[in-house]
Amino acid sequence: MATALKSDNGTVPANAPRSVVEWVDQVAALTRPARVHWCNGTKTEIDALRSSLIESQDLLPLNPESFPNCYLYRSDPSDVARVEHLTFVCTQDKADAGPNNHWMDPQAAHAKMDALFEGCMEGRTLYVVPYCMGPLDSPYSRVGVEITDSAYVVINMAIMTRMGTDALARIGADGHFVRGLHSTGDLSPERRFIMHFPEELAIKSFGSGYGGNALLGKKCHALRIASWQARQEGWLAEHMLILGLESPEGETHYVAAAFPSACGKTNLAMLIPPEVLNGWKVRTIGDDIAWLHPGPDGRLWAINPEAGYFGVVPGTNAMSNRNAYEMIRRDTLFTNVAVTADNEPWWEGLKTGTPVTDWQGRPYDPAQGPAAHPNSRFTVSATRNTDYDPQADNPAGVPLSAILFGGRRRTLTPLIYEAESWNHGVLMGAGVASETTAAATSQVGVLRRDPMAMKPFAGLHFGDYWANWLSVGKKLTQPPRLFHVNWFRRDDSGDYLWPGYGENLRVLQWMVSRVTGKTSARSTPIGFLPSAHDLNLSGLTLKEGALDALLAVDNAGWVQEMHEVGEFLAEYKDRLPPELEAERTRVLERLKN
Ligand code: GTP
Ligand code: SPV
Ligand code: MN
Question: How much of the chain is helix, strand and coil, in % rounded to 5?
């Protein structure tokens, strides 16, 4: 049996499969680390890694009285978000990556990346991080190993995944695992690439230590690689939250929702009902990723592959999301927030306290921009959420009653509308458009098509991805109902028409009443909408005219929209499923009549 280099963590774990050991050896020969550390995921290990990061001042302890066991990490100022222009899907046939991805020939990509990885870990530690996406005992879960030279990545992966010895044991039983190789390199944006090889179940990421670029179990594995596998195997890997909504009568409905990055998934997943709606209860299964499988009962079953939250910090306060606000007051890793004189974390939208040091560690000066980076993040275990649903650990997952698509759109798309059929819903999801956010490095606020919130994350041709959605739908005898929502409509002065956050429950209520058949709806060319009196608005004051605007279908605007959706879909040419074009034509005809 091959042996790895001498490890400072004792030796190679007894349960390490040969395939993993051999791969670690190959990578160590290429990257030439000073030592190899096989992670076991124990508290002792993570505590020691954290202590070493504190010693090197990479991690700053925050106020231990008000924020016990909380730490601040400041990234390189050029490394604060996902880099979509440097993210590639490398398939043998370029067509398989689709016009929706940047593509590179796999051989060329390996050569490029291996040249960067050569000797890059000299003097550093190579960490071997075995992880399981999903409950350890779920048939739907998948395993991977990330090799990284960043201790910050290791402590994040320990929160975000089931990491360590048990995951390694599952690889032994599985045989297959996703190989993720990561190095922060010298953090030069010139030498930063996130490469995916779906046919090889491999990822190579170089030059960034940030979230989605570096925590390879998350977007790289659980979305880009998994969406490729899902299409081959007949399931769905999606950028969705999962929540359980319990009515006052004690009936629970599980709902998944796909909103683009920084468009409200974590907030909806942790919703606290407004007081007038007491008796309702939301529990969180997941806040970012869902793996959906058609079950033998004809329902669609969802698991959350993650074990923690990597959430947007700005905007979190006791009013908007009290759950998250309380949750991140202990045992939390903050990245790129500001700090107060009391050494407490601070961010825009917190509504209390004053920043003295900005996210880059400079004395705070409003002339230099926001105090916290707009994409500053918290990493925290899901179990810290007081409304964490124990069903999240159910190996079978939860059966979905509804799926929501949504985007951040200041005009046109109503507060909520419902698809007439699964295929119509797939068109609705495919046509999602949303204003870009700080979660990726590019201009913010630009409207772009982001089908199913998967534009940056589908590791395959969108035509093939939609075909898979349609074929999954055919397997479901009790499909979830499909809806589209928009919390982000604005008036001419730029103010939001809808209060959002906890008040979104009123929209979920209508959705549940549709699922249970307890309410009728207005049939319009774009789908079913509630009338104003169908929504429970007690105790809510909206601006004059807001509700009418939120529930209106602007015919001329939608004709234009459907033409634009048509142009967008046409980019997918011969791989575009004809059913989508048929649905679009049907909607357009209705709009014109
Ligand atoms: P990712 O983690 O990037 O995938 O983001 P996410 O979809 O989980 O978004 P999140 O819930 O973190 O919200 C992003 C931003 O939108 C935060 O600043 C929130 O305060 C804000 N936000 C969330 N929900 C609402 C809402 O209903 N209305 C308004 N106006 N803003 C919201
Ligand atoms: C997103 O951008 O959708 C996130 C954060 O959830 S990241 O992990 O960077 O992808
Ligand atoms: Mn996300």
Answer: 35, 25, 45
Question: By C-alpha distance, which of 450, 520, 547, 545 is closest to 239?
Answer: 450
Whether 220 is catalytic is: no
- Residue ranges of the chain with pLDDT lower than 70? 1-10
CA distances, 299 to each of 114, 475, 479, 516 (Å): 44, 9, 6, 15
In the structure encoding, which two tokens stand for residue 407, read together? 């985007």
Instruction: Please state, as a whole number, how many other Cβ atoms lie within 10 Å of the Cβ of residue 517.
Output: 7
Domains of the chain plus CATH, in order, are: 18-57+86-233 (3.40.449.10), 238-307+389-592 (3.90.228.20)
CA distances 400 to 248, 295, 476, 526, Å, are 19, 11, 11, 23
Report CA dihedral (46, 48, 54, 59) to the nearest 10 degrees: -10
Q: Are the CB atoms for 171 and 13 separated by under 8 Å?
A: no
Q: What is the DSSP letter of 245?
A: E
288 ligand 1 Cβ < 6 A: yes
Residue 219 near ligand 2, beta carbon < 6 Å: yes
Pocket test of ligand 1: the residue of 266, 310, 504 to mutate, having most ligand atoms within 8 Å of its CB, is 266
The fraction of the chain above a pLDDT of 90, given in percent, is 96
Amino acid at 233: E
What spacing in Å lies between the alpha carbon of 262 and ligand 1's midpoint? 5
Q: How far is CA 545 from CA 82, 277, 526, 542, in A?
A: 38, 23, 21, 8
Is-above-0.90 flag for pTM? yes
d(Cα 306, Cα 238) in Å, to the nearest integer? 12
In angstroms, the Cα distances linking 185 to 130, 209, 375, 433, 441 are 21, 9, 22, 35, 19
Q: Where are the alpha helices (DSSP H) in 380-533?
A: 422-430, 462-475, 505-515
Q: How many CB atoms sit inside 10 A of residue 513's CB? A: 18
Ligand 2 atom closest to residue 215's alpha carbon, by position in its atom list: 8
Residue partners of 593: CB distance under 8 A and separation at least 6 = 525
pLDDT, tens digit (0-9, with 9 covering 90-100), for 409-418:
999 999 999 9
Beta-sheet pairing, 398-406 with 481-485: parallel
Identify the pLDDT of residue 370: 98
For CA atoms 438, 441, 445, 447, give the dihedral sign: negative
- 439 touches ligand 1 (CB under 6 Å): yes
C-alpha dist (Å) from residue 373 to 79, 337, 365: 11, 6, 13
